[in-house]
Task: structure prediction
Amino acid sequence: VGGQITKNSPRESHTKSCYSAAKPYCLKSVEQLMSPPIPQERVPAEAIRLEPGPMRQSSRCGLMIFAVALAGVLGIARWLTPDDRGFGTHEQLGLPPCAFRALVGIPCPSCGMTTSFAYAVRGRLLSAAWTNPGGCLLAIGATGMIPWCLASAAVGRTIWVRSPERAAIMVVLIVLGISLLGWAARLIVES
Result:
C-alpha cells in the first residue's frame, strides 16, 4: 500500500524470478537479444574503397543531353551582344528588365549574369568577372562540363568525381557565395 512492495506483490515475484538460482527468465531474454561475442583471433577487415558503379544507359543519355544543353547556352551567349551597362543583355531574348532593379533601384545578385556569360564566351574574362563573378565562374564551368559529360558518358562512369550530387551541391554553394560577395561589392562601389 502507498507504493510499498508487499510479500505477495507481482513486482516482488518478478524480481525473485529474475534473480533465482536457476537461469533466470530475464537473463535468457537478454541473451537472446545480444549478438554473439567477436572472437579475439579475428583480424579486423580492411577499409573498403567505394567506387562508382557502371552507369545506366539512361544516365549516359542524360549526360549527353546535358552537354548539348550547355553548348546551347554558351552558343546563345555568343549570339548575344554584351550590354555596355553590365546588365540587361537578357532583354535581347525578349525577357523583361530585372524587376528587382526596377522596384528597389539596386541590382539583384544575379544582375549581369547573362552579360557575364556573353563576355566570357568572347574570352573577356575580366569584364565577365567584373559584371558578375558568379556568372563568369558558371560560364567557365559550363565550358569544362561539356567535355566532362561527354567523356563520362563514353566510358560509362563519372570521371574524377565519386559523387556527382555532392559535387553539384558544392558548385552551387560556391557560385552562390561568390555571386553574393560580388553583389555586395557592386553595391558598395555603386553607392
